[in-house]
Amino acid sequence: MSYKQNVAELIGNTDLLRIPSLSVLTGCEILVKCEFQNPGGSIKDRAALQMVKDAIESGELKQGMTIVEGTAGNTGIGLAVVAKALGYKMLTVMPKGQTPEKEKMIALHGSELMLVDPCPFANPNHFYHTARRLAEENNHYWWANQFENTSNAKAHYKHTGPEIWQQTEGKIDALVSVSGTGGTIGGTSCYLKEQKPDVQIWSVDPDGSGIYHYLKTGEYKAQGSSFTEGIGIMRTVANFAQAKIDKGITLPDQDLVTVSRAVRNNDGLVLGSSSALNLAGALFAAAKSGPGKTIVTFACDAGERSYSKLWNPEFLTEKGIRDDLETIEQMLERYRAMDEDVIVNVTRRG
Ligand SMILES: Cc1ncc(COP(=O)(O)O)c(C=O)c1O
């Protein structure tokens, strides 16, 4: 007999999928790691499992305790899955204004949900500080702390990176990733660079996030805003600090909408918003590197979780975004024609 012992064992070992339309269009192999296959539906299940496993091993997390975490949603869902599978309670602290889809999933997975008003990080009521404070005030709470707890990046160093290496048989030329805590890009880039130092690591950032500016100047500054959720950073956190990044770009929400429609119509994959940004980044990397390369990125979650924003025509109209502004072919041509200066060459900045 061959079976998994519990739901947590379903985490990881996701498929790597070729996106035929974008691969044919660019002449590159555009491959996505199908992280929506995890039982909690997102890449954050991996971080959740590793953080919990390490805390059990170190003795910080004991039976009967409650896991508490501040999150834009997916880490809360991942931790709720792991908590139920391994016998813990879960309390998720989430800012209001994330998609209701994620709020519902957290409750559905049996986590208690505390919604707080969205506010800047410096405000003590920010969801991050609220989760920390709750854990400080209750000794039967354990705070996962996905931003500073490097078990998060370790999950990707131990599993995601090796899976990509094996699935591509080492023929990977570039990895493209968004960052929320930087766990994914941190752990995966470290592993892949150890195997192949010249693999190019691309960071793709939405409007409203400071990573692009940070890579360029060393300072966090952001312009505009984005409807993407769970991604973007405005401070240096321990997981992102591990990332070995070669190139940085920033792309607007309009571009991820265009890619999401092309991939839905041509390939049958309904992407979440961060995944669509990843694929826009992969298209950009293909445009700039020329044909013949193998470019890997992540489908961090699936489209259901972005139903009320990315897939909601009224919402997009309110934001002034069109889903027919340009074709994917026109977008690729625009990327090809773009000045090289829009790319931050991190290694060169040294
Ligand atoms: C949908 C989605 N995509 C991407 C990310 C970013 O992943 P990471 O935290 O590993 O940088 C997150 C969460 O942080 C997320 O929820």
Write a structural description.
This protein is an alpha/beta fold. The protein folds into two domains: 7-38 and 156-338, Rossmann fold (3-Layer(aba) Sandwich), CATH 3.40.50; 43-143, Rossmann fold, CATH 3.40.50.1100. 42% of the residues lie in helices and 15% in strands. It is built from 14 helices and eleven strands. The strands form two sheets. Strands 1-2-10-7-8-9-11 form a seven-stranded mixed beta sheet, sandwiched between helices. Strands 5-4-3-6 form a four-stranded parallel beta sheet, sandwiched between helices. Helix 4 links the parallel strand 4 (89-95) and strand 5. Helix 2 (44-58) crosses helix 3, helix 2 (44-58) packs across helix 6 (151-167) and helix 10 crosses helix 11. Bound molecules: pyridoxal-5'-phosphate (PLP).
What distinguishing features does this structure have?
cysteine synthase; 11 strands; Rossmann fold; globular; alpha/beta; 4-stranded parallel sheet; about 350 residues; single chain
Short description:
This protein has 350 residues and is α/β, with parallel strands linked by helices. It has helices at residues 20-26, 44-58, 74-86, 100-108, 127-137, 151-167, 183-195, 211-217, 238-241, 253-267, 273-289, 313-318, 328-337, 346-349, and strands at 16-18, 29-34, 66-70, 89-95, 112-116, 141-143, 174-177, 200-206, 247-251, 294-299, 344-345. The chain has two domains: 7-38 and 156-338, Rossmann fold; 43-143, Rossmann fold (3-Layer(aba) Sandwich), CATH 3.40.50.1100.
